[in-house]
Amino acid sequence: MPAFLYEFLQWLLNLLKSFAAKLRPPPAEELPLLPLMTPWPGKAHSEIDIIPEHRIDARNEALILLPETTRRFSWTERPVPPWPTVRVIRMTNVSLEHSGIPREVTGLRLKQLRVRPSSDTSESPTNMWFPLRRYAPRRWRIKDFIQFPADVQEIECLFVDINDKLVGTVLLNFWTTGMAEMEPNHKYRQEVETGSDDIQLTMTWVAIERSNQATLTERLSWFGGEFVDRFHRTDELPDLDAAVSAFTKASEPDITPEGPERQQLLARLKFARRIRSTKLTCLSNIEEAVTRCLKMVVMIPKGQPDLHRWIERLVKSLVDRSTRDGGLSDVSEALEESWRAEPSFPNKDDEKLVWVLNALADSFCNLHERTGNRSGLPQALSARRRMVQLTPGDHPALPDRLLEFGLLSLECSRGTSEAPGAISEVITTFERMIKLTPPDDEDLPDRLAAMGQAYLQHYECAADLSSLTRATSTFRKVLQLAPNGAVAPHHAVVIGASFVRQFEQTGEQPVLEEAIEMLRESARTIPDGEEALFGCLSTLGLALLRLYERTGDLLQIAEAIESQRRAVHFAGISHEIAAELLANLGVSTWTRFEATEDPSDLEDAISTIRSAVQLMPDGHTSLYAPLNSLGYGLIRQFQITGNPSDLEEAVSTLRKAVKSTPSDHFFQRGLLNNLGDALLCRFKAFGDSSDLAEAVIVHKRMVENPPDGYMGLPILFSTLASTLVAAFEVSNQHSDLTEAISWLQESVRLTPEGDASKPVRLNKLGDCLKRRFDVGGNAEDLEESISYFKVAANHRSSASHIKLKAATSWAQLLAQYHPDSPEVWPAFDAALGLLATVAGLEQTVRHRYTRLQSSSGLACMAAAVAFSQNRPDKALEWLEQGRCLVWSQLSTLRTTPFDDLRLHDERLSKRIAGVAKRLESAGTSRGMFTPSMPFEEKLSVEGAGHAHLKLAREWEDLLQEARNIPGFENFLRPLPLSSILQGLPESGFVVVVNVDTARCDALALRAGWDMPIHIPLPSFSVDKANKYRDALNLNLRSLGLRVREGGVLGVSDVDYEGRGIRQPARTKGSPVHNVLRGLWDEVAKPILDALGISKMDRSSGDIPPRIWWSPTGALSFLPLHAAGRYGLPNSESILDYVVSSYTPSVTALTDRIARSTLASTTGKLASGIFLTAQPNALPHSPIPKTKAEVRTIHRMAIEKGLRARVCEGSEVTVDSCLEHMQNFSCIHLACHGSQNVGDPLDSRFFFHEDSTLTLATILKSNLENADLAFLSACQTSTGQENLSDEAVHLAAGMLAAGYLRVVATMWSIGDEHAQHVATSFYEDLWKDIGDDQGATFDGSRSAFALHQAVRQLKARFEDSERALLAWIPFVHFGY
Asked: CB of 290 within 8 A of CB of 314?
């Protein structure tokens, strides 16, 4: 070699060395003291920040030393255990010994000790694992110690072999072993339960009890030891630097005085320095070796026999330096040298070259594992390929080298366009490997699993169904070889994925269930943090998703999402397969949205899938999957929000997905399906006929020449039918509709019977046949339509809202065309029964209300059919079953009657009561999911939702168990007429008014009647009710007495200061008289006449009869209690006839009567009144007369000798108010109120300084003494128009919270008028009470007292519209 070239290379090497020296730690003599920080109690750290310019502060026990530089240490294997914050027990010198016959242990290869505490404490470590090292024949030990809080009563130790098979367990109970009263450093031993007489293992250990009262010396010594231990695991020099720093500081005389402890510290310091010196010497030697080898390689001519030896040494030195520096350049240089050196290696020394190549490949792979850098993998693959080429066919290492080459090739080709060809080569390689493997070889399962993985990846990228068949067959062999059926976790992941794909192609559910059980078991055994765990969890989630799609069981989709969230959490967003994990999670989340219709699920799904798309590079072979999911999610989001940008993005995203996928790809049909859906949706939204034409073309293309056995045909046929129906609506060509029906019939035929998607297709088919009946009048089409709806409604799977739609259509068609059919009754029974499942207990109260909006009016429709068939009994049953569902659920959970059940089965009664309490809490207080929340919080909310779902399932199981007891067959089922009529008020009438499009009727009930009286209302109609409601609302808004876009308004008169929140403008004229007159003539007067109630003579002093009104539909928002003819010579109103109250339902009233009776007989009701006034609840308008109101009432109460308490303004907080509500039977709130129609539980009363008392907060309280609530606030009984059957207002909420009666308002009230009505109300309520101290009262006369107070206010005015609006809003609810 020319001398100048050698000098140039030498200069370049020196330059690289000087550059590397700048990046390396300072020499030993210049070593600065590195800082140490105490880990936070109870938390594991992934890294410790070392902060400069801090000092030791023994007062706060901080361990921070003065450094010269700032560094960052990253844990690689596991975090340093936190310093104990409680008394702990530490087990050291843990070892295991086999005491049986020696020959029985020759094949025993132990791998790991896993420890988990049996008790559940917040400080308990979970899923700790320790490698077992064999240090002598038949003896193993762990290097680390086991530490746990001293309050843990017992732990379980599990010993696992190299195949992850459980060998034996030890259950350590600290009381039975004596460790609870241990002596220091006491040695213990216990036999291991192995389940085999041949394997006899004994576990020994030393137990040391430690206290958190550690000295500074102990803490520094502990840190030093931890860093030394970590150096042995990481081989990183900074760990030794930190250890030396800790031991140096600990051994200072002012910290540790002279004595044995300091001598021990100095010895440990000397040991750490010696290791560090050896490490630095090794690094120096490596540099010298590289220099020397490079010099020799350059000097020795090519072809000389010694050249290959020097190149071998150079490669080894470069690899060693790369291992320590973590750089890629040294390994790349070494690989180039090995290629250059290959001709110099004699044939007999091929194994040396193989060794060199293997070292190089390992270095590249290790670098990829540590940093995620894939740039070296192709070079590693080249090295592995050359290794295989250099290995003779009969060499014993050839199968392993074939395996390593194949696995690396699979990794390199994953997600690339070269994948099909590369995997085909791998399959050929693995087939050769299997032929070389003896049937009894212990490595055969691993090699078969690798081969199955190759087949599976070939199916994924090339859509080769034969590869899937071979994969499944290969994995079956792996299962056969597994001892006792225990599959290794890393095998379970790929086997599970293969079985899932097999199910997708064949529909064999047992295969899917087998995969799920196998993956669940593997997920339980894999420690947290291992890479196999998130692969296992993600595959488990996919399997559960597929099972849910078949069965419709919400527990399965909930578990799927929870598993996939955990997989993403463990993998981290930076992991190379994070995109695939996120995509799978997104698909599962929007699949749940399709069932639950929870908008937060859809929003989160789109956000998650967007993240997956962003992480996946263009050109990735799997990019089509998240693009397809994102496009479909955007379609659904547009259908909810109506945002055109969502639809445009959906179309463009799906076009990109189709374009990025080969035309013969197995997923191409699914992509075309969703693209056609997006185009059809855009046509329906904007009317562009070109979109419809393209949708038809795309959907017809996707059904052309499907492969045999293709499982997606039902979906494709159904979607094509929807497009043809849209074409029929435009062209009116009957052939389009007929073709659509044909495709749907084929879709239904191909869908398995138990598939959850079958009711969706049955609904579509029923709709199409009904449409053809409307066009052609063929009775057969109508009958077929009814039959399909019936089958869908009674399907055992599918989402409840899908079956509810089918049942509603079934019932409606029968009622319209076959009203005399006996099937009408089971059809409506099915529909109303499904209504309760749509708003099931597994959901939050907010979401239940959201889901009920689309079914509002179903109970009224059913009742109208019953009235037309002269079945008032059935009408009442259906009205009670289908109205006020949410409040009824809350009431059931709070006041379930257990007395009779307790006599038969006390254990079951207690279990039902416990679950009821937890269900109520979960429904009213469970956190809501938002896509923007941190991922850890999402995991928590998801877990809470899953637990809520399990709780609801347990509730149903317990109810079924109770109903299996003779005599309890109808336990907590919808009440029959006979039960409804029990417990009615002793006097007065209950009148239910049903308003439906078909007809309007009233039902009158009275104690002692066997059957309700049916009162037809032919002059009233839905149209009139809506007209009256709209006219009244318009008038109230013009006067500022109604909510307008979520804001609460006050009244307009200057001297009429309202308890609203905004001040209105004046307007003239109002149809109030017309509305009240219509209600009188068409509803109230006919009912009073039918009941024989005549006008009262006030001078007689007789008490007027009482009516509890229970209106439905639009009538719920009208003041039926004030119906009358006003401003006329012959004026009369309902006030002249009866005392009016309202009740959300008949059952709500009878429940409160029962509670009132119980309270009066047991004497549990704590009498008394609590009053609060909030005159200046900023930023709302002042209501100054609230002070005078509560003070006057409080003075009256004291004069009557009643127990009373008043708090004003800042004197009351939310917590203190709740406490007073629990201690007083009556509460009077004089303040601003606001109703939240979107979230009823967020309706609230406003206190001072933005403090608010929400209905949700009230519901969480245990108001056992609740009797009367006077809500002297605005719009506390207004309700929500799209939930007219649910009584969504504060008054009904207070009834649900436990109050027996509530005084509320329908719109904003005047401050002065509110004061007048309130004081008059209590004067009348307490008029018969003496002035004795300790007097008590209840609210049983509250309706009469309000009646008198309102009449007094009414008497102050003429019957002008303004005057009417002053007293009408005051209403009474309950008993």
From this structure: yes
